[in-house]
Write the structure tokens for this entry.
Amino acid sequence: MADVKVVLNEGLRAEMEVRGLRFYADEEIASGGTNTAPMPTELLMGALGACAALTARLYAQRKGWNLAGVEVEVSHDRVKAADYPGYDPDKHGVGELLSEFRQRVVFKGDLDDQQRARLLEIAGRCPVHRMLTDPKVMIEELIAEEQGEQA
């Protein structure tokens, strides 16, 4: 898996690099950004939708199914844990907010209902989906500025 390097100098426009490719994240003007690139949350939703679409396409190709295209719309909202179906007070604290991602998926092509249902199931197992839903371990390490510049 590739590592991503992020550099933020002035302002809120961040430059990202992975495998020699460069892309950017920014904030809206109302938030102090320049609105010249997607916001980080939009990049995350785009990654989720793209990963679901790619995973479905690869599965359909392996099965020899006629998947002509995939469209995925991704939205995100913060909801109170207590108002969410399946709320577990032992798992979620009082007043805790959960991230709710909603994907609306359209599979194009000559597919039957069973194939579409299976593709939706497979899309929901894409690596980005699993990164967001599986148990997580986040390790943040502060590096002295001199060491960071040598990397």
